[in-house]
Amino acid sequence: MRLLCVSDIHGHADALAAVLATAERRGYTQLLVAGDLCFPGPKPLETWRRLTQAKAVCVQGVSDRALATLDIDKVRPRSEHERARLDRLAETRTELGELILARLARLAPTYRLPLEDGGELVLVHGSPADPMEPISHDMTDEEVLSLLGDDPADVVICGGSHVPFDRLVGGVRIINVGSVGEAPCSIRSEAADRVRIAGRAPGELSRSGALSTSYGAGHADATFIELRAGELQVEQLVVPLGRAA
After folding, report:
1. Where are the alpha helices (DSSP H) in 138-242?
2. What is the residue extent of each domain of the chain?
3. Taking the domain 2-240, which CATH number applies?
4. Confidence band, pLDDT 50/70/90 cuts, at residue 243
């Protein structure tokens, strides 16, 4: 079983297409998506269609819940930015239509997958204790433990913070897969300016648990996960994007 794990597409269908094209050349058996699928990017319907065609397993993120349930008439925007976001929310709802909105409303907050070694993987947007509260790379072990809850599974696949990392806390492997559509901009070294960063064990990561080289603009994040010879192999990808993405 070789899993392609992504999160936070936010309606950027071209970025998703670039990730899927890269992954298809490498091969994978299942696509897992840790929420925030269609809003606020420019192509929410195309994003949904691509995920459907790929038979993706998706869990509900913050923006998915907002699209499906938020009563816009009861929200009083406090700034022009908030007004623009509400207008975009209404436009996205119209583009998606009632059927897809109903499906977004029914997405589960978590998805559990048994692993071949007898362990278990949980897919969640934020954290096992609170699917809407993300685990970020700069949290202390104590902060992370408080978000793992009583039954976190052996491997937690999550998004929400838009920054990928691979970290072991309290015996739980936490893999944040970053963002397809809204990966943060930062300075990166020439050595890291490659499409792929090979999988690394948690001990090879920086003290915070994030990959020690930061990522730059114009890219999407994705992660391959595979159980090989009883060992979990994790490979976090940086996929360059063209202007269209």
Report:
1. 141-148
2. 2-240
3. 3.60.21.10
4. low
